[in-house]
Automatic annotation (TrEMBL):
It comes from Desulfosarcina ovata subsp. ovata. One of its GO terms (cellular component) is cytoplasm. Gene3D superfamilies: HAD superfamily/HAD-like. InterPro entries: HAD-like_sf, HAD-SF_hydro_IIA, HAD_sf. Signal peptide: none annotated. One of its GO terms (molecular function) is phosphatase activity. This is Haloacid dehalogenase. It comes from the Bacteria. It holds the Pfam family Hydrolase_like.
């Protein structure tokens, strides 16, 4: 663990690493306190596009962890940054919640349900047949299809909900167009996160609980990876993959021991 503790930058997934749903994981508070005490540069990363930085800040506060709102980076922010670079001052038809629409507004995008440059889909509880039908016709008319992340399932504690990959699938199938996904495992999201830190990739470690999103994204970004077994991946699952994390931890508490 000495090599991990000596890193200057820490990028941490949230669900499965810091908490499960609305329950803080053991040693998570001590780990965040250690990051602060050691003056580490750190960022919490999530594929979930529903919540804004401030909402994530409030969630951790309710769980007993106090960190600045700028310590959070979401797939919504990564998607907005990517689209603003691709099409400055563009427009989008959005199927998603406030975390996504606010990120797009802040990046200079306008909402457009007539002739948008993009149809953008993220996690949402306001999914409907009418919205999907409208999105299909906009894509067929020329709008480009973008998803915040390819996750098929959105875990919340012990429950499972449709992720962005599931919500965007009917649009892909009906139009014959493949969506571009910005969130993990796309290494661009990790590179965007690195720009928020004052560290190089060699000085940074990415901590996550999923081999299929977190670890492969870190490997493709050439950042050292640490898999924690406190989330979706069990130790016996490692043999199912042809790639390996640099470190395997029971939880973030191992870094402190």
């Amino acid at each position: 663990m000495k090599a991990v503790r000596e890193k200057s930058g820490f990028i941490c997934d949230m669900d499965g690493v810091i908490y499960h749903g609305d329950a803080l994981l053991p040693k998570a508070l001590e780990f965040v306190n250690w990051l602060e005490a050691e003056k580490k540069d750190y960022l919490f990363l999530t594929n979930n596009s529903q919540r804004s930085r401030e909402e994530l800040h409030q969630k951790l506060r309710r769980l007993g962890i106090e960190v600045d709102a700028m310590r959070f980076y979401t797939a919504a922010l990564a998607t907005a940054s990517f689209l603003a670079n691709q099409c400055p001052n563009g427009s989008a038809y959005v199927i998603g919640d406030a975390g996504l629409t606010n990120a797009l507004y802040q990046a200079g995008f306008s909402m457009n349900d007539v002739d948008p440059d993009y149809v953008v889909v993220g996690e949402t509880s306001s999914y409907s047949f009418e919205k999907v039908s409208h999105a299909i016709n906009l894509v067929l008319a020329g709008a480009r299809l973008v998803g915040t992340n390819p996750d098929l399932v959105l875990p919340m504690g012990h429950k499972r909900y449709p992720g962005c990959g599931s919500l965007i699938a009917p649009i892909e199938l009906a139009t014959g167009r493949q969506a571009y996904f910005m969130g993990k495992p796309n290494p661009l999201m990790i590179r965007h996160a690195l720009r928020c830190l004052a560290c190089t990739r060699e000085e940074t470690v990415f901590i996550g609980d999923s081999m299929e999103t977190d670890i492969i994204a870190g490997i493709n970004s050439e950042v050292d990876t640490a898999l924690v077994l406190s989330g979706t991946t069990a130790k016996e699952d490692l043999d199912l993959y042809s790639y390996r994390p640099r470190y395997v931890l029971n939880s973030v508490g191992d870094i402190l021991d």
